[in-house]
Design a protein that fits this description.
The structure holds 2 protein chains of 2 kinds.
Chain A (H helix, E strand, L loop, with lengths): L2 E4 L2 E4 H23 L2 H18 L6 H21 L9 H5 L5 H11 L3 H11 L5 H8 L3 H15 L8
Antiparallel strand pairs in A: 1-2
Helix pairs in contact in A: 1-2, 1-3, 2-3, 6-8, 7-8
Chain B lengths: L2 H8 L6 H12 L8 H12 L7 H9 L16 E5 L2 E4 L2 H4 L8 E8 L2 H8 L7 H6 L1 E14 L2 E11 L12 E9 L7 E4 L9 E7 L5 E7 L5 E8 L5 E9 L3 H8 L5 E2 L10
Parallel strand pairs in B: 1-12, 2-7
Antiparallel strand pairs in B: 1-10, 3-4, 4-5, 5-6, 6-11, 8-9, 9-10, 10-11
The chains are: A mainly alpha, B alpha+beta.
Chain lengths: 165, 279
């Protein structure tokens, strides 16, 4: 196993790949819900892992690390959307690779176009599996604010509650 | 739709094998900008072999390579004085561009530099990035990237780099973001027209203004109405350092701060009287 000295960190390839395999699909799904195309997602995920592997702070535990990585990924997505090079509208072409039916493409488009404050709580809840109290900690919001955002996000997406999580 | 459907749709996209290898390769071969040449070359090979380059830079190329050179001029030598020009822009819809229009050149080479001085020196210029940016922002992990792009057999060298709010402790990198590109020119840039495609925006999407720095350099400003970002274009000719086009894109940064940043550009107008007064 090759050890790699990176700036102030001493990490192994094994450690990097372990973290990458652990988080890659969750982060891709979060990024895709913001960006809607795999190329921008690739940029964001690559950058998020570089930050994790080479420039992250010391984490108290794995959960602290996971939350940091999610937050960095979301912030990078927001940067990407605000940037000069972002396309004006999400192209359907980017969705067709992952979704076959018009209905699924329509729903994913609605998710991508959901206002950021609602989308973030929706993604943390349904992709990352966080409870309202945990989202409240991650986003530094009150639990009632998280509940309200979840409720409004669901309303906008016309989601029927069934107590899934 | 119920919650189960929502969760199924949200978790449907997954990383494909090609992207998987590409990202893992880049992460494993990542080197900070201060590494030696051997490591840097190794990293260049790795980066060139992945698809990371394909998207964002292709979009950059839409504008950069669509620059239309109309005039001619001569580059002489010596100093940091410049003659600045207002930017001329032509907005084109995709229909106007037509399917046959070659927008994209091919990136044929990339070189990564941690040092801005070193990166600009690769192009034969002094570092043109405002000192305020180095003092107050964090350079992207990718550092300064010198690119060579081939379009219709013509090779164009140029440079890009990005800066962020320092968010390593908090995880919040979304505060402020600066993207910079510099395109050198062998000829005067006075008659260069930048072509903006629909991907960047239409004319009605921007508020246009201008700022003259404390050094007398004209900066053409555009603020995107919907997204709020501000773009500053500085086109200059100089017997001292050569000619070029410097573009800085500021996201999450207000106009007053943008002007403060532009005032630290290492450029001074030759004489106020000689400034291009526009059409």
């Amino acid at each position: 196993m090759e050890n790699i000295l990176r700036a102030e960190k001493f990490i192994s390839e094994e450690w990097i790949l372990e973290k990458y395999d652990l988080y890659k699909n969750m982060l891709f799904q979060i990024a895709f819900s913001y960006l809607g195309n795999k190329y921008d997602c690739e940029d964001v995920i690559q950058e998020a892992f570089i930050k994790l592997c080479y420039h992250s702070p010391e984490f108290d535990n794995n959960e602290h690390e996971k939350r940091w990585l999610i937050r960095v990924t979301i912030n990078l997505c927001i940067n990407n959307l605000r940037s000069f090079w972002n396309r004006k509208k999400v192209s359907i072409d980017g969705l067709e690779e992952y979704f076959s039916s018009d209905e699924e493409i329509g729903i994913m488009s609605d998710i991508i176009n959901l206002p950021e404050k609602y989308k973030t709580v929706i993604l943390l809840h349904y992709i990352s599996g966080y409870r309202i109290s945990e989202i409240s900690e991650i986003m530094n919001l009150s639990e009632s604010a998280v509940k309200m955002r979840l409720k409004r996000g669901r309303e906008k997406l016309k989601i029927e509650l069934e107590g899934l999580i | 739709m119920n919650e189960r459907d929502l969760k199924r749709i949200l978790t449907k996209p997954t990383i494909d094998n090609e992207m998987d290898r590409s990202i893992a390769d880049v992460i494993l071969n990542y080197e900070s900008g201060s590494l030696n040449n051997a490591n840097r070359n190794l990293r260049n090979r790795s980066m060139l072999n992945n698809s990371w380059k394909s998207h964002r830079l292709a979009k950059v190329a839409v504008i950069v390579l669509a620059l239309v050179l109309v005039g001619t001029g001569t580059v002489l030598a010596a100093g940091y004085k410049v003659k600045s020009h207002r930017q001329k822009i032509k907005f084109m819809t995709n229909e106007e561009l037509g399917e046959g229009t070659p927008l994209y050149g091919e990136d044929t080479k990339r070189t990564f530099f941690g040092s801005g001085d070193e990166a600009f020196a690769e192009l034969g210029y002094p570092n043109l990035i405002p000192s305020y940016i180095y003092d107050n922002y964090l350079l992207s992990e990718k550092g300064h990237i010198c690119l060579e792009n081939n379009r219709d057999g013509v090779t164009q060298k140029w440079l890009i780099t990005e800066f962020f709010t320092d968010g390593y402790e908090t995880g919040d990198f979304s505060g402020e973001y600066i993207y910079i590109s510099f395109i050198p020119s062998d000829v005067s840039v006075v008659n260069i027209t930048s072509v903006y495609t629909e991907e960047v925006g239409l004319e009605e999407d921007f508020i246009f203004s201008e700022y003259t720095t404390k050094g007398g350099v004209i900066c053409s400003l555009k603020q995107h109405i919907e997204r709020g970002y501000i773009t500053a274009d500085i086109l200059f000719d100089s017997d001292t350092i050569g000619n070029g086009s410097l573009m800085m894109n500021f996201s999450g940064i207000d106009m007053d701060k943008v002007k403060e940043i532009l005032d630290t550009l290492p450029l001074t107008e030759e004489t106020i009287e000689n400034q291009d007064m526009g059409e």
